[in-house]
Design a protein that fits this description.
Length: 67
């Protein structure tokens, strides 16, 4: 298993594109929505991974939640 609780599949390059699933999704979304209008909602424990993988997103656009 590649995916695990500490590093789930959205943060892994499972397609072999040198980009993770969350990065690929962000790339596609940013083609139709201005980056300033993109928000990420994630579990509290993944906020740092989101910040690392999407460094251009402002911290205020990342919402952690105890899911």
């Amino acid at each position: 298993l590649i995916s695990r609780n500490s590093h789930p599949k959205q943060f892994i390059d499972i397609l072999g594109t040198k980009r993770t699933l969350i990065q690929n999704t962000f790339d596609r979304l940013s083609l139709i929505v201005p980056e300033r209008n993109i928000f990420v909602v994630t579990n509290d424990s993944y906020v740092s991974l989101v910040k690392k993988q999407l460094p251009t997103i402002l911290d205020a656009k990342i919402y952690g939640n105890r899911l």
